[in-house]
Amino acid sequence: MQIAKISVGAAIMLAALVCNSQGAARLTTIYQSASGPDALVPTSVLSDGNGGFYGTMTSGAQMGEVFHLTPPAETGGVWTETAIYTFTGGAGGTIPNPGLTMDGQGNLYGSAMGGTPTAVCSTGCGVVFQLTPPSSESGGGWTENVLYAFTGAADGGGAYGALAIDKNGALYGAAPGGGAPCSGQGCGVVFRLTPPGAGGAWSYRVLYSFQGGTDATNPMNGVILGKDGALYGATERGGPAGEGAVFQLRPPKSEGGAWSEELLYGFAYADPANGYYPSTNLVSGPNGTLYGGTSDGGDLSCAPYAGLGCGVVYSLTPPTAAGGAWTYAVIEAFDGSQGYVPLLLVALNGGELLGLTESGPKGNGSIFALKPPTAGGGFWSQTTVWNFTVDTPDSLIESGGKLYGTTRAYYQRQPSMGRVFQAVF
Predict the structure, then answer these.
(1) 3-state DSSP assignment of residue 393
(2) Phi and psi at residue 414, in whole multiples of 5°?
(3) What is the CATH number of domain 8-89+134-142+150-424?
(4) Which residues does 400 contact at the CB level (< 8 Å), separation at least 6?
(5) Whole-prediction pTM value?
(6) Distance CA 283, CA 344 (A)
(7) For a designed S-S bond to 289, which of 62, 147, 266, 285 qualifies (C-beta 3.0 to 4.6 A apart)?
């Protein structure tokens, strides 16, 4: 899944958007995959910094690939899709997970399913990979380097979610499996991969292993790196009541020490109005406020899921004094008349949020916008930007004042076609 902070121009674009009660947008397809049960379907995109995009593709019958989309030379022309790396199975992984990260040298990082078989995983427990571009423009292909292959034991298994990267090039991520014993497959871990010196190997370290019980369990949407150097994430399960939690991992005072975990909030079915079962990535807003979404709870009268709720978007505001408690608030409870069950959030520089939902009034999900109140204590305003009618959205980013994302259509419950779209307001 992709997280992006967007430009002031995009924030102005959003301000104009929320004035339109219909949330009208113009969506165009810039790339469409072949159709059929074996089609490679795009699952995420990442700006390349030059007007084009990198992305991931998966297929039920093929191994998957990383691709590049090059914009047309003239407005209205055709975008060009190029496969820059195709996974072939074995030690290099099979199917790339949605979400790529790029460093300052143009290298791409991500995770993939499969890898070398282990005692826990007969087809591999997943890998973290690096893709290095050709050394010159004269030709040559991208090169995959497997930075780490999970065993599914104490080191974790099945990394998922986009990787975070710090100023020194170290990568941070979360694996929902492995670690301490939990539900037969492990409770999951948060890890770091540190780049080597010249010619050396990347160094892998488990920063925290979730313990089960009242601890958070099985992180599914990666982690984000705060300005304070701490890592933040949310888990769908675990926590004091078992319906998920938001956690913080603080770095040690000296290198090599233990990272310390704190649960910032625990979700509970017994408190449905505040939502439960976190379903989105976390994003960071002004002053370190965290935002996320849940799949359940909120407005229990919502038509699609009466009695269960259609999910919420929430905020967690850091304490004003050291040692204080974070403040939790619901900023949007979906009522079923717009999109519901949030999947993904994007934070804007001005404090606004954009997001995707799994379902919508036209059946296949939506893009929504949330604008914060103009005065303290006021209410956030929600606008439906776009309702999908045929395909289902998977990812969303901003680039150059426009929105880009991926969708997939299904046939007999299998992805049969996908596209990359551009949205202009």
Answers:
(1) strand
(2) -115, 140
(3) 2.120.10.30
(4) 7, 51
(5) 0.91
(6) 9
(7) 285
CA 206 to CA 386: how far, in whole Å?
40
Q: For residue 339, what are the CA distances in angstroms to 307, 347, 374?
A: 17, 18, 24
| Secondary structure letter of residue 273 according to DSSP | G
Q: What are 116's two structure tokens?
A: 């070398």
Residue type (1 letter), 70:
T
Q: Compute the distance between CA of residue 301 and CA of residue 292 in angstroms, rounded to an integer.
A: 22
- Rg (C-alpha) for the chain, rounded Å, is 21
Contact at 8 Å (CB) between 344 and 311?
A: no
Strands (E), 33-184: 41-47, 53-58, 65-70, 80-86, 101-102, 108-112, 127-132, 143-149, 164-165, 171-175
Backbone phi and psi for residue 288, each to the nearest 5 degrees, phi listed first: 80, 10
Give the three-class secondary structure for 40: coil
Distance from chain centroid for Cα 226:
16
Rounded Cα gap, residues 329 and 423, in angstroms: 30
Q: Which tens digit of pLDDT belongs to each residue from 174-227?
A: 999 999 988 677 999 999 999 998 778 999 999 999 999 999 999 999 999 999
Q: What is the three-class DSSP state of 334?
A: coil
Among 103, 118, 109, 220, smallest CA distance to 167 is for 103
pLDDT, averaged across the chain: 88
Is residue 208 within 8 A of residue 235, CB to CB? The reply is no
Which residues are within 8 A (CB) of 316 and not within 5 positions of it... i.e. 6 or more apart?
246, 264, 265, 289, 290, 291, 292, 326, 327, 328
How many CA atoms lie less than 13 Å away from 173 in the CB half-sphere? 33
